[in-house]
């Protein structure tokens, strides 16, 4: 047996084992065609992979994308607040009418707000006999002025004036569209007593301020 580049050498008759050189040539053409088809298939797979690459650039949540630009979202917040501080007691001393007093209070509101004002007794009332006795009165009425500086953004002042009897039914001072500028002032001015004057004894009153934010 003799090996040649084309395969097995054939006898002079051109046949060997029933397969001639012509048949061997057809086999070589067949393998070349298969190789070409295989190369084309590999190239198609490679192109498909390249085409799918941009889709893989997105994360599971679609938050990252390829391109020439991107957006970065930035957020923040400021918590709303509205608080009063201060309070305490005011001693007007001997009551004859016409006494005045002031009391400052703290106010921190970064949103528009309303301040409700309410009187517990409608005036300075005698502790045990607010209705008085005989010709003597047991109630000393007063006038109240409430002043609150605000920012809108220009500085502005809101003001309310009320009588002690009006304050038995709550009254409200609104800041409009302004926020607080850091505090406020409440002023009292007592009126002249009625009748023969005031009944001897101790007089008390409680004024309540309540702030409510308006979002």
Question: Could you please describe the fold and organization of this structure?
Answer:
- This protein has 215 residues and is an alpha+beta fold.
- It folds into two domains: 3-56, no CATH class; 82-213, Sandwich (Jelly Rolls), CATH 2.60.120.
- The protein contains one helix and 16 strands.
- Strands 5, 6, 10, 11, 13 and 14 form a six-stranded antiparallel sheet that branches. It has a three-stranded antiparallel sheet with strand order 12-7-16, with no helix packed on it. It has a three-stranded antiparallel sheet with strand order 9-8-15, with no helix packed on it.
- A hairpin with a 3-residue loop joins β10 and β11 (155-163).
- 16% of the residues are buried.
- Mean pLDDT is 81; it is low at 1-24.
Task: Give the topology.
Blueprint: E1 3-4, E2 7-8, E3 15-16, E4 19-20, H1 21-56, E5 82-85, E6 100-109, E7 113-119, E8 124-126, E9 139-140, E10 142-151, E11 155-163, E12 171-174, E13 179-180, E14 183-190, E15 203-204, E16 207-213
Antiparallel strand pairs: 1-2, 3-4, 5-6, 6-14, 7-12, 7-16, 8-9, 8-15, 10-11, 10-13, 10-14
Summarize the structure.
The protein is of the alpha+beta class. The protein has one helix at residues 21-56; strands at 3-4, 7-8, 15-16, 19-20, 82-85, 100-109, 113-119, 124-126, 139-140, 142-151, 155-163, 171-174, 179-180, 183-190, 203-204, 207-213.
